[in-house]
Write a structure and sequence with these properties.
alpha+beta; 9-stranded mixed β-sheet; 8-stranded antiparallel β-sheet; binds 2-OXO-4-methylpentanoic acid
Length: about 350
């Protein structure tokens, strides 16, 4: 079942990167799954005894119907990206942060996690084995999806006896339709994404299916996504289904503080540091929905969305348009500052980039 990596990789090397990626319209390439050559798989037990990991051809998993992940949602995932530079090297952005977030999330979901070195090594191996799928420089990235799931069988409610750590990749372009163009958001006032004491602050798979209903309804009405409010007072902005949110007022940047219900986004953290280094005042604090509506500029951040400007927010019958619907200056500046570091174009003064 498992093909020796070198034989397969040698065969693949006969296809140049350019051949693989030819015909893809990168300027209109979205965030769809495009299967690649290899994935990484490593199994372990509940005590954290991990077997040797291996690269296997990308394909389906065989899994028990009573696997913990299928029955009780025991799983966490990560998202990070690799970029091709102009001189054809491959860069990854802050993989250690993803590794640490997985360790933290796994602890919350009663799972053993791979240690930081194992995580980074697995991600590197997977990217290198699928190198021909890393898009041309400036034309998207290779999205990396590490996944940790309870694959051992269990019937009574308890942690699964066995775990699988997986890494797969897919070349991607922009997340929202229309590229770096402002999105239209709707404030959700009935459903909540997370409650205090819940799992909103970790990247568990079980945080994502519940947002599909509201997202689907909003999309049906022409919005790109929804903004969630806090579950206690229904008054403070939390995050969008797939990303964090920032507001700008009089050049001061604010974003909801991390108080357990909001995902600690790595792009969120990077943008805070970048903006401060460029002289902006950045506050992490409760941001009310009224402030969101009164902002000069609003943008979202995430690995998948990068930095995406918000063109309008609708709250009940009220609709606010920011920046006349065009990309705001702060969003544009921070987008460029971040992506030029990620793509190796500007100096990596924060030491965020890891070269493969
Ligand atoms: C990411 O930005 O990497 C995420 O995991 C969000 C996901 C819903 C696409």
């Amino acid at each position: 079942k498992v093909q020796p990596l070198n034989a397969v990789a040698d065969a693949l090397n006969q296809t140049s990167d350019l051949d693989t990626l030819q015909g893809i319209d990168w300027d209109n390439f979205g965030f769809g799954l495009r299967p690649t050559d290899f994935m990484y798989v490593k199994k372990g037990d509940i005590a954290g005894n991990w077997q040797e990991g291996e690269l296997v051809p990308y394909g389906n998993l065989e899994i028990s119907p009573s696997a913990g992940v299928l029955n009780y949602g025991q799983g966490v995932f990560e998202g990070l990206k690799a970029y091709r530079t102009a001189d054809d090297s491959i860069l990854m952005f802050r993989p250690e942060e993803n590794a640490l977030r997985m360790v933290h999330g796994a602890e919350r979901m009663s799972m053993p996690a791979p240690d930081v070195d194992t995580f980074i090594n697995a991600v590197k191996q997977t990217v290198l084995a699928n190198k021909r799928w890393v898009p041309p420089t400036g034309k998207g990235s290779l999205y990396i999806r590490p996944l940790l799931i309870g694959t051992g069988p269990i019937l009574g409610l308890a942690p699964a006896p066995e775990y699988t750590f997986l890494v797969y990749v897919s070349p991607v372009g922009t997340y929202f339709k229309g590229g770096l163009s402002p999105i239209d958001l709707k404030v959700e006032t009935y459903f909540h994404r997370a409650a205090p004491g819940g799992t909103g602050g970790v990247k568990t798979i079980s945080n994502y299916a519940p947002v599909l209903k509201t997202q689907y309804t909003a999309k049906g009405k022409g919005y790109s996504d929804v903004v969630y409010l806090d579950a206690k007072e229904n008054k403070y902005v939390e995050e969008v289904s797939s990303c964090n949110i920032f507001v700008v007022k009089d050049k001061v940047i604010s974003t909801p503080e991390l108080a357990g219900t909001i995902l600690p986004g790595i792009t969120r953290n990077s943008i805070i540091q970048l903006a401060r280094s460029r002289g902006y005042e950045v506050n992490e604090r409760p941001v009310s929905v009224d402030e969101l509506l009164a902002a000069d500029e609003v943008f979202c951040t995430g690995t998948a969305v990068v930095v995406n400007p918000v063109g309008s927010v609708t709250h009940g019958t009220k609709r606010v348009l920011y920046n006349h619907g065009v990309v705001g200056g702060v969003s544009q500046e921070l987008y460029e500052a971040l992506t030029s570091i990620q793509m190796g174009v500007s100096k990596d003064e924060f030491d965020w980039v890891v070269e493969l």
